Amino acid sequence: MDDVTRRRGHTRIDARRPGSPRTDLAVEAHQAVVSRSRSTVPEVETEREPGRYASVHRVRITGPRGAAALGKAPGTYTTVESPQLRQRSQEAKEEVAGLVAKELAGLLRRQGVGPDAPVLVAGLGNWNATPDSLGPRVVGQILVTRHLHEMLPPEKKGSLRPVSAISPGVLGLTGIETTELVAGVVQRTRPAAVICIDALAAASPDRLCSTVQISDAGIQPGAGVGNVRRGLNRETLGIPVVAVGVPTVIHASRLSGVGDGWAGAPAVPPGAFPPLLHGGDARSQAAPMVSGTPFTGDGAQADDDFLATLIVTPKEIDVFVEDASEVVAGALNDALHPGLDLEEVLRSI
């Protein structure tokens, strides 16, 4: 197939092909393909469950044709959406956390990870960049118990799973690929599964900081922003990998109406961007420099090229990431330590 290549015995998806939506969310990739083709996608199943404050949307990619069409690896992708998250609704946060915990527990169970099996949580991302700091912030709120599990009284071990956590940083900070660091920890600590937490890119502004995606297909760090690194999945680590992410950034071209031409792109009111960002008489506003000389070519084309590299985030991103990290960390603690009375356990240890 043109969009699926074989390497080292497993499938690698090329999500950067022309026309593919710039998103890490499978639900948006599916919507884009359906919008273009106006037909169902082969080897892709979807279902939706509405709730009071949040809805659950599942996309199951069951074969290579579905994987090639969506630009995603085969597996189950569940999104929990709640617009009220951006309004900081406590009820919405609690419902989303509960739904995410339920999905996580189900994925671990279906992958053969028992209730007492050790789990490693990896918080991916750059703690120095707020939109990319979700993973490290979640790790800071995880109840880690691997170092305490052997000291627990027998009656407490049934409700307290051995959990360890790392925040490996990014290649620019460490000089080491994230996959290499996580693989080294997996080799030494021998967890039964890895849960990766990362910030994602969305195609719709409506889903920024209001959606949580859970997947059993692993994760491709940097894929949504065009900086694709080696994947974290069962093929690279040898154990089940569950990915949890929240979209915190969006390509500017998705807001301007130019770029990849996805039919589901939102409408943007006139004047939302300065002329340099949306075409028009850009040359009268500024003269971009190319190789040290003023650019005198097609201004609209220059704007489109610039937008193709521009990634934006909400101005309230610090508050949104803080809230998202609390929701995801609460869901993980609930899923990994079912029936846990946190205050009672802390008194015991």
From TrEMBL:
Where in the sequence does UniProt note compositional bias of the Basic and acidic residues kind?
1-17
State whether keyword Ribosomal protein applies.
no
> What keywords are annotated for this sequence in UniProt?
Hydrolase, Protease, Zymogen
Q: Where is this region: Disordered?
A: 1-49
The GO molecular function terms of this record are:
hydrolase activity
**InterPro entries, per this entry?**
Pept_HybD-like_dom_sf (IPR023430), Peptidase_A25 (IPR005080)
Main EC class the enzyme belongs to: hydrolase
**Pfam families in alphabetical order:** Peptidase_A25
| UniProt EC number | 3.4.24.78
Protein name in the entry: GPR endopeptidase
